[in-house]
Amino acid sequence: MKHTAGVTGNGSARQQELLEAAYAWVLEHGWAGMSLRPLAEAIGSSPRVLLFLFGSKDGLVRALLARSRTDQLAVVDAVGEGGELAEVGARVWAWLAAPEHRALLRLWLEAYTHSVTDAGDGPWAGFAARTVADWDALLAAHQAVDDPAQRVLLLAVLRGALLDLLATGDAERLDAAVAAHLATL
Questions:
Q1: The pTM is what?
Q2: Alpha-carbon separation of residue 48 from 38, 42, 45, 143 (angstroms)
Q3: Which of 84, 90, 103, 145 has the fewest CB atoms within 10 Å, measured from its CB?
Q4: What CATH code is carried by the domain that includes residue 171?
Q5: Residues 52-73: pLDDT tens digits?
């Protein structure tokens, strides 16, 4: 099950270059308080150029969310190759728990929270729901018998463990908790 989020290859070379630079900045600094002027300065551009290339700040946020989703879907594809549900759950957790993925996961959490709390049709609209659907589809592909409740529970355990990991850094405790749940599948 290969995914695409439809960002790469669109727009001018300069737009792609600035999108990648802005994405690297957002990975490091997060979404909170993202302002065009400091972002533009940090990536060697100007607010006017960003507005021209992305249409608006919301357009830039949408492009950054799509870029982030590309990375997230690559993870779904990478961990989803073969195996039963418990094996896939273990691979997902191993990826989530790896320290080198913290920046992407903090960014995901911030975007997920914006999507849940910001009503309307702004740039965050639907991000959380799409994330849930992506992961549910991955888990469904690895169930011998379709059991939505089992998938929801596994996803809830993984998401909850991720939240605790990002908050505490206590990987040992959370590895044990996830392993205990996976043993029940």
A1: 0.83
A2: 12, 14, 8, 50
A3: 145
A4: 1.10.357.10
A5: 999 999 999 999 999 988 888 8
